[in-house]
Amino acid sequence: MAEKKLPFSKDEIHRIIEEYKTPFHIYDEQAIRDNVRALLNAFAWAPEFKEYFAVKATPNPSIMEVLREEGVGADCSSLAELLLAERAGLQGEEIILTSNDTPAIEFKKAREMGAVINLDDISHIDYLERHAGIPEVLCFRYNPGPLREGGNAIIGNPEESKYGLTRKQLLSALAIVKEKGVKRFGLHTMVASNELDHNFFIETAHMMFDLVLEVNRSLGIRIEFVNFGGGIGIPYRPEQEAVDLERLGQGIKQAYEEKIVANGLHPLKLAMECGRMVTGPYGYLVSTVLHKKEIYKNYVGLDACMANLMRPGLYGAYHHISVVGKEDWPKGYIYDVTGSLCENNDKFAINRKLPMIDIGDVVVIHDAGAHGHAMGFNYNGKLRSAELLLRPDRSVKLIRRAETIEDYFATLEF
Ligand SMILES: Cc1ncc(COP(=O)(O)O)c(C=O)c1O
Questions:
Q1: Alpha carbon of 23 to ligand 1 centroid (Å)
Q2: Which atom from ligand 1 is nearest to the alpha carbon of 194?
């Protein structure tokens, strides 16, 4: 069972709200540090294991700096994310560009920074060569297609996915870039998203280690590193269990020994680029109840909306809700918890059992630390909200101010 507790007391959050207006996202720095240490520990046996935080989950340099201090790099998917990584003090191969349909400017910037480039297609070899030159180290994203049965609920069947190269293309691509002077090679895949079964990742490791062996046998190329992508899920629902990282690490260790060590290919560096599990459970969207409305159903209207967290509206995703100070009250009422967008799917919860809610109550939406603020938008003229960091000494740092009307108007011509 995942415990859905708040990292602040009622008095503490009220003091924070006096200084920073709701809605805002607040991240628990100590919990982020403890959690990422657990991930790194689970792979302490692996040669030079590296986690590249998927910046898209929470693109804020203050969060990235916290992670950098823990030895975590950055997985970037765009020019802006590369620049954020640079500003967060990361450099060279602490950064990987895992992008698709990539514009030349991203390849150029990644080359300039000495970041690892992860190519999404065989045709990108020529494109990269023309626009940025071929680097000494290169990685390819593998799409196993029908060779990976089952698929994962969110990311879907690999055969239907636009990412990566087929097995045949991957082998040709490695041979081509070897000819072009590449000296160090990496393989990447990502076949899961929000996956809670650790066995899924162990199977993926087996698949990738088999590929490393095949590349070695058929091309004589020694792969230097394998990146399993992100995709470790989080228990959004209280009845779900977090992935057991120790079992995950040990399962991959066993696969590594059976396939890599036994075939004389040790050391092979391993990497992941998790986003959701790194920050997701440690970010909270804090809002205030503006209105209550009783028609065919009972509604509670917040000052936050889908622009602050679109997962419930977009995927019908469950996010746990706490009403501050009423955590232990009986859940005797059924509400739809809404935002103010002119979209009927602007709801954080539908038919949710909650304690009696009053106007002015502080409502906290859990697990908003990844793909939360990051997926925000300005529809209906909504302004992006602030992001705060709850420091280990309990002080609060503003790490992104809220947008103002002036920001909203800044790109318009009158
Ligand atoms: C290439 C790539 N790597 C890593 C991630 C991070 O995935 P997650 O946040 O599920 O760990 C994503 C997410 O979309 C991705 O596209």
A1: 26
A2: 10
Would you say the pTM of this structure is higher than 0.70?
yes
Alpha carbon distances (Å) from 217 to 34, 129, 180, 222, 318: 41, 27, 20, 9, 46
Q: Which domain holds residue 148?
A: 43-274
Which pLDDT score, from 0 to 100, does residue 145 have?
87
Active-site entry in 76, 139, 305, 342: 342
Name the domain boundary from 274, 305, 328: 274
255 and 371: one domain? no
SS3 (DSSP) at 152: strand
Instruction: Inform me whether the pLDDT recorded for 155 exceeds 70.
Output: no
Please report which confidence band the pLDDT of residue 413 belongs to, taking 50, 70 and 90 as the band edges. Answer: very high
Same domain, 55 and 197: yes
Question: Is residue 153 scored above 80 in pLDDT?
Answer: no
Q: Are 87 and 130 in contact (CB under 8 A)?
A: no
Q: Which of 75, 187, 204 to mutate to test the pocket of ligand 1 (most atoms within 8 A of CB)?
A: 75
| CATH classification at residue 315 | 2.40.37.10
Residue 25 lies in a domain: no
Pocket (CB within 6 angstroms of ligand 1): 54, 57, 75, 98, 190, 193-194, 229-232, 273-277, 370
The rounded distance, in Å, linking the Cα atoms of 412 and 414 is 7
342 is catalytic: yes
